[in-house]
Design goal:
This protein is mainly beta. Helices cover 0% and strands 47% of the residues. The strands form three sheets. It has a six-stranded antiparallel β-sheet with strand order 6-3-2-1-7-8, with no helix packed on it. Strand 7 and strand 8 form a beta hairpin.
Amino acid sequence: MAQKIKKGDSVIVLTGKYKKQEGTVLEVWPKEQRLIVEGINIVKKTVRPSAENPNGGVIEKNASIHWSNVAVKDPDSGKPTRVGFKIEGDKKIRISKSSGKAL
């Protein structure tokens, strides 16, 4: 099965606390069906002192979000759209269902 949302895609959150906010996909886990979006689902986490962070303390980091709660942003209208596939020559490309343009 081809993956519909990939790293670097611009997405819009459809539900939850961050509804209607936009961000860029930083990481994708296809088996868990989760992804990390920049600036979305920020959580506070306490960390122990380490060589990297000698004082420890509370840090903010992006937590994962289920990919059914986001939609790819249409390159033309900027609205959420579904992703489809089209075969051009010998390549399979992702297209926007609403505008038909390549993503």
